[in-house]
Every structure is written in structure tokens, then in C-alpha cells.
Specification:
Structural class: alpha+beta
Number of helices: 5
Distance between the termini: 59 Å
Strand content: 15-25%
Shape: elongated
Radius of gyration: 30 Å
Number of strands: 7
Largest sheet: 5 strands, antiparallel
């Protein structure tokens, strides 16, 4: 079976297309028309290609055929679910390291250091148990929540504690996850 003519029609969510132009084909293929849709995009949103259609048109109604193919430019990566055992181990490590770090600046916290570390540890633990699924899933929200809760409770050193928590997580959490998941089954 020989293809008489083929055209591409590119469908994009934010494409401005010119009206289709019909072009007569040579006498060997009389009665065939090619549908062309020239288009231009400026700063298209991702994904760039949402669908691609190949159309063969003929003046004879019985021979009109349409072939459609979907092309996906980006696959969605599904992050793994949180691992409760990892969350427990990492929460303990976080608590010990945060206590050590903030103890160096005891004057900023007065007698509230234990309560500040407790609040930060609880919020971090909830995040690890419910949302953290490995590299690429570290969010800012738990650390802004720490800052907000510490300020609401009027605890001293809210900003340095939230900052130290975030820096520790950025420097250790993804690496610890990779070590944890690369080990043989526990």
C-alpha cells in the first residue's frame, strides 16, 4: 500500500496556527489535497508536544483515513513512598545534630533550647513520615512551618533554629536516603 500524501498537524495548547492551506498534488495523484498547518510558538509551556496527528485526505469519501499517534516529551517520575524506618532513624539523627548545633549558640535560646529542638524535631518527623520520598522531594514548607510555630509559641531563636534545620536537611537528607536505600533489605 503506497501513501498518496502525508501531512503533519501539530496540536499544542498555546499554539497560534495560520489557516490551513490546500495544495493540489501532481496529476498522478489527482483529487488529493494536503492539509498544512504552519504554526509558531513563543515560549511554549512544557511539555512542548502534546499530540501529533498524521492525516491523509482524498476527495473520495471512502478513502479518507486518519492516523493518530501520541508523543510524550516528558515522563512523569513517581517518587517512592516514605519509609517509616528511615523516618525514625533520620529524625533521631536530626534531633541530635540540631541540639549539638544550637547548643553552640545557647545565649540565643535562653532556657528554651530543649523546647525549640522538640518543636523542630516534631515537624521534621511528620514531614519524613508523610511526604519525603527521596532526592527531589525535600520541601521548604516544613522549615517555614518550624519558623511560624516557634514564633507563635514566642520561643527565642526561631529564625536560627529554622535555618539550621533547613541547612542540615539540605546537606544530609538526600545522601542519607541514598545510603539507606542502597543497602540490602533490612
Amino acid at each position: 500500500m503506497a501513501l498518496h500524501g502525508c501531512s503533519c498537524s501539530l496540536s499544542l495548547p498555546s499554539v497560534s496556527a495560520l489557516p490551513p492551506a490546500k495544495t493540489q498534488i501532481s496529476s498522478d495523484y489527482s483529487g488529493l489535497h494536503i492539509l498544512r498547518s504552519p504554526c509558531a510558538t513563543l515560549n511554549p509551556p512544557l511539555p512542548v508536544i502534546s499530540s501529533l496527528s498524521f492525516i491523509i485526505l482524498s476527495t473520495k469519501p471512502s478513502s479518507t483515513k486518519r492516523f493518530a499517534t501520541r508523543v510524550t516529551t516528558q515522563q512523569k517520575y513517581v517518587y517512592p513512598d516514605p519509609i517509616p524506618e528511615f523516618a525514625e532513624a533520620e529524625t533521631l539523627k536530626f534531633k541530635l545534630e540540631l541540639m549539638r548545633k544550637l547548643s553552640m549558640e545557647k545565649e540565643k535560646f535562653g532556657g528554651e533550647l530543649d523546647e525549640v529542638v522538640s518543636v523542630c524535631t516534631e515537624i521534621f518527623s511528620q514531614f519524613l513520615h508523610k511526604e519525603y520520598g527521596g532526592p527531589g522531594t525535600l520541601l521548604v514548607e516544613p522549615f517555614t512551618d518550624m519558623l511560624v510555630v516557634l514564633k507563635e509559641k514566642r520561643l527565642a531563636g526561631a529564625a536560627p533554629a529554622a535555618r539550621a534545620s533547613l541547612l542540615w536537611a539540605q546537606n544530609h537528607l538526600d545522601q542519607d536516603w541514598q545510603l539507606w536505600t542502597s543497602r540490602p533489605t533490612r
